[in-house]
Automatic annotation (TrEMBL):
Coiled coil: none annotated. Residues 141-370 form the Sigma-54 factor interaction domain. The keyword DNA-binding applies. This is Helix-turn-helix domain-containing protein. Keywords: ATP-binding, DNA-binding, Nucleotide-binding, Transcription, Transcription regulation. The keyword ATP-binding applies. Gene3D superfamilies: 1.10.8.60, Homeodomain-like, P-loop containing nucleotide triphosphate hydrolases. InterPro entries: AAA+_ATPase, AAA_lid_NorR, Homeodomain-like_sf, HTH_Fis, P-loop_NTPase, Sigma_54_int, Sigma_54_int_dom_ATP-bd_1, Sigma_54_int_dom_ATP-bd_2. It comes from the Bacteria.
Length: 457
């Protein structure tokens, strides 16, 4: 069970234990740990929803494992307490901005911190009133980009209500994962989550699949069968590629959404079903409505709430953490000597445009883990050499953008994410490099350096 009035206090480095801390946390039970490993263990045994992060003076950059830890525990509302000097460092600022609900600087103002903690506890309690008391079963959603941080916030809000959600995004960008997260965060999480790909089922079968049929409803229906909507009773139904649902079925679906009842094929008895419907699409449904291939009334019914999963090329900072995550996930399939990604492989990953989004990245990493015969994955193992060669076929503008991005990624890697050094290597000012980083959506993260530390070219 999640403890509502407990605070996990993680101290990293040498922090002179501020006497006034006790005053700030008075009334809460404080779980104090001095390492991320201990914090990890405690979160399993006694999960909490509010965390205090005390950072010592000796860190010039966030420890590599910290960001991963914060990513894993994104449901905890963190308040950071750190020396003011660290806030001058872009890497610390980015980390606090991405993962913390609030921050305070040393020396500690106990009254102010006490107020912040009260506020954060209040918000967390609001969240738990909407959410189930036990830790929800959630898919692991990797991503450090602003877009993913925003998405996590939206998921929490959307999960607490019953309305349908329309999830849009390019193929392979993670729409189904988002749907699983909505289900996993909702009070329905113990009931079934059923995903139906409307594009994969032939139109002739999809009615019976969704709504079920009575015995003899059609040739071959030798016994009655409940459909997938009924199978999701109490839970969540994801209608993937909803844009491919035939028009006549759109009418039945609309009826179900309005009346919460279904009619099995061949039956005259309607059955009440309690199912939350999520729909996903990679096509622009508004355009489909304009073309007349999608019912307008159904579109508005489904689009009460909407979530948009951005394509991977618009959140490039997620590429390396995702690659690293898949590498660990499929570690069992790799040869024993394989250690990780070479720098050139990381550069190739950073420069690629990912038309197939996260699924393409997953496939390339798995392929590379099987194909690589050295200790480090090289670009050809990822099938990315062809991408480099095909640049000859690009227009000059695109080629310039790609070359600029690759040069920036390479200089950052070589400079260990030190922006000043990277700018010197590139022969531009620091300000220009910051502008270029923003233009290409590249975030400077300490873990990128660590992921690649000691990796050869
Ligand atoms: N943020 C993420 N963290 C970890 N894995 C992810 C993430 N996003 C996507 N994936 C993985 O990438 C693969 C593709 O994602 P998913 O199936 O959710 O995409 P989709 O948008 O629903 O694709 P399609 O449009 O083809 O149905 C899955 O294996 C999923 O688990």
């Amino acid at each position: 069970m999640t403890s509502h009035s407990a605070i996990l206090c993680v101290t990293l480095g040498k922090v002179p234990s501020p006497a006034s801390l006790a005053q700030a946390v008075a009334g809460y039970s404080l779980h104090q740990v001095a390492s991320l490993k201990e914090a990890e263990r405690l979160q399993v045994l006694q999960p909490v929803r509010v965390g205090l992060l005390l950072i010592g003076t000796e860190f010039s950059e966030p420890p590599a494992a910290l960001e991963e830890f914060l990513l894993r525990h994104w449901q905890v509302r963190w308040v950071a307490l750190l020396p003011p000097r660290l806030l001058c460092q872009p890497c610390w600022r980015a980390l606090v901005h991405a993962h913390c609900h609030d921050f305070h600087t040393m020396p500690l103002d106990a009254a102010r911190l006490g107020q912040t903690l009260g506020h954060v506890q209040g918000l967390a309690a609001l969240g738990t009133a909407l959410l189930p008391a036990t830790a929800p079963v959630l898919p692991h959603m990797v991503g450090i980009s602003n877009a993913m941080t925003r998405m996590r916030g939206q998921l929490q809000r959307v999960a607490g209500v019953l309305a349908p959600v329309l999830i849009s995004g390019e193929s392979g960008s993670g729409k189904e994962l988002v749907a699983q997260a909505v289900h996993g965060l909702s009070a329905r999480r113990k009931a079934p989550f059923i995903a139906v790909n409307c594009a994969a089922l032939p139109a002739s079968l999809i009615h019976a699949e969704l709504f079920g049929h009575e015995r003899g409803a059609y040739t071959g229906a030798s016994r009655e069968r409940r459909g997938l909507i009924e199978a999701a009773q109490g839970g969540t139904l994801l209608l993937d590629e909803i844009g491919d649902l035939p028009l006549e079925l759109q009418a039945s679906l609309l009826r179900f959404l309005q009346e919460k009842t279904i009619l099995r094929l061949g039956s005259t008895v309607s059955r009440t079903v309690d199912v939350r419907v999520l729909a996903a699409t990679h096509v622009d449904l508004a355009q489909a409505v304009a073309r007349g291939s999608f019912r307008e009334d159904l579109y508005y019914r489904l689009n009460v709430l909407s979530l948009e999963v951005p394509p991977l090329r618009q959140r490039r900072e997620d590429v390396l953490p995702l690659a690293q995550y898949f590498f660990q996930q499929y570690a069992g399939e790799r040869s024993r000597q394989l250690r990780g990604f070479s720098r050139t492989a990381a550069q190739a990953l950073a420069a690629h445009d990912w038309p197939g989004n996260v699924r393409e990245l997953l496939n390339r990493v798995r392929r590379a883990m099987v194909m690589a015969d050295g200790r480090w994955i090289m670009p050809p193992d990822l099938g990315l050499e062809a991408v480099a060669r095909s640049r000859a076929e690009l227009g000059l503008d695109d080629a310039r953008v790609l070359a600029e991005r690759a040069a920036i990624a390479a200089s950052l890697l070589e400079a260990g994410s030190n922006v000043a050094q990277a700018a010197r290597r590139l022969g531009v000012s620091r300000m220009t490099l910051y502008r270029l980083l923003a233009k290409h959506g590249i975030a400077v993260r300490s873990h990128q350096r660590d992921t690649l530390r000691s990796a050869p070219d």
